[in-house]
Amino acid sequence: MTQTTTPARPKRAAKPNGQWKIDGPAPLNTNEEMKAADNGLNVRQRIEEIYSKQGFDSIDPEDLHGRFRWWGLYTQRAQGIPGGKTATLSPEELEDRYFMLRVRIDGGALSTQQLRVIGEISTEFARDTADLTDRQNVQLHWIDVVDVPEIWQRLEAVGLHTTEACGDVPRVILGSPVAGISKDEIIDPSPVIAEISRRYIGKPEFANLPRKFKTAVTGHPSQDVVHEINDIALIGTVHPELGAGYDLWVGGGLSANPRLGERLGAFVTEEQAPDVWEGIVSIFRDYGYRRLRNRARLKFLLADWGTEKMRQVLQDEYLGYELPDGPLPDQPTEAGDHSGVHEQKDGNFYIGLTAPAGRVSGTTLTALADLAEAHGSTRLRTTPHQKIIALDIAEDQVKDFVGTARTLGLEAYPSLFKRSAIACTGIEFCKLAIVDTKDTMIDAVAKIEERLADHEGKLPRQLSLHVNGCPNSCARVQTADVGFKGQLITNEQGEQVSGFQVHLGGALAGFENGEATLGRTVRGLKVAADELPEYVERVVKNYSASAAEGESFAAWAHRAEEDELK
Q: Dihedral angle at the C-alpha atoms of 113, 118, 362, 381, nearest 10 degrees?
């Protein structure tokens, strides 16, 4: 009897990832179709000529939910929609007829004139709203599309803009807030930031990337730009033969699939830096995964390629020359948030001011511009830690400046908890959010300080508290000592309430924590919003009771037993 065998079924071909250099440029999803149909930069003309004249109802849906982002505009959340509806309603049902407008501030550099214009726009067009973001931008709310051309005109008259503040584009370039003035600076990143911005921002060839692309550049030894969570970062270092330049990092990012960036081991000179930046963003554009939005960040390509291939492709296909190997930057020895009063290299002082969870107002910003000028300064910087710094204050002006700033709600000497508190926009305005963040954080910090008032000598030297309103990580919860990720939870009474999943022991490279690490989660550990102060008190006291001498909170949290973290 002859035995027949069933022929082996041929293997199914892998689905294309939408990599332009491998699969071709044909769009593989609706987002890619939208971008292919019309470059996002082109929507500005329609905003100016049609939508601002005919109003919200005239806006094409593809522009409203897509291309508007290329000019820093998102529809904000309609008021009164509870967090439980976030996942069940469509974007159209969640959105208001007003916009969040993000003012792009590359390197965080602002003149008092520019800050005053932002403040005036806030009071006239944004119901006096303003938030300092953790990417050195300022965000306004309640913007009506009819006012956008006037707002652009005012911003651009003083050298500001909203170009590519959102969207699948190169976002704002993070830069050291003390560039050019710090006594300890290795290299001033200002020329590199300015040249990247001049050459590439707002250019159509880089205005259709797989997803957003984040950049950080610093020459300060505190590594003050959260470089490990950017797509590309240039970190100041000194080559033994080539002098001061930059160490190249790529592939960092958080959100639902966090990954810390990695060194390529390459040294980059100041002159090479813009070309290297162009090479990395071009790799992302040409080889980045476009089929699935949740895998369309550079970190996924790096995970598959590895650092060696990434460097080789950069050199062979985009630079045309090899980069020299470079030294690892020295470990930071000080905090990188620049809070407080610090002497500049010219003998003047810069003063880092903390606003409650980054929340300010147009009135406050205008008053700060006036205050700085009254004390001889015309320059300020925003920071990646939701702070704002006044530069060039003479020594005899410092005390009065600090005291007057305090009356504006801006503190040069914040407490441990106020200093470290970062919160995203939250349910107040964000369509993705599930819980409130800003008010929750501000209220919680006040109560935490009250609860731990008699614990002063036992607190860690550093303790960052970050609150995020959804599973994304705009507030960097995975890199906080204590990070709270918003979700709905069920309390003991069986009621659904606002709460948080807790991440513990996250850290970026710093004087206190050593190397960067992502926070750990503890099984079943969820905290209701109104229980947040009690939880922080409990875990801080557990740290005080069992931490080794000099041990950071992050290090302790990673080795502690789960019972100590609940």
A: -70
CB burial string 477-505: b at 16+ within 10 A, e below:
bbbbbbbbbbbbbeeeeeeeebbbbbbbb
With 0-12 CB in 10 A as exposed, 13-18 as middle and 19+ as buried, what is 443? middle
Among 5-9, 245-249, 544-548, which is the least confidently predicted range? 5-9
Residue with tokens 């060194």: 263
For the sheet containing 340-343, what is the strand order?
Answer: 109-111, 379-382, 387-393, 349-354, 340-343
φ, ψ for residue 250 (rounded to 5)?
-145, 160
In terms of pLDDT, which residue wins out, 492 or 215? Answer: 215
Name, in order, each residue with C-beta under 8 angstroms of 325's C-beta and a sequence gap of 6 or more: 265, 266, 267
How far apart (Å, rounded) are the C-alpha atoms in residues 66 and 32?
Answer: 10
Q: What is the mean pLDDT of residues 471-494?
A: 93
CA 40 centroid distance within chain: 22
- Burial class of residue 219 (count of CB atoms within 10 Å of its CB; 0-12, 13-18, 19+): buried
Q: Between helices 362-374 and 398-407, what is the axis angle to 10°?
A: 160
- List Cα–Cα distances, 321 to 3, 211, 272, in angstroms: 61, 28, 11
Rounded distance between C-alpha atoms, residue 36 and residue 25, angstroms: 9
Distance (Å, whole) CA 269 – CA 276: 10
Structure tokens at 335: 């905090």
CB-CB contact of 511 with 332 (8 Å):
yes
Residue 81 clears pLDDT 70, i.e. is over it: yes
Q: Specify the pTM.
A: 0.96
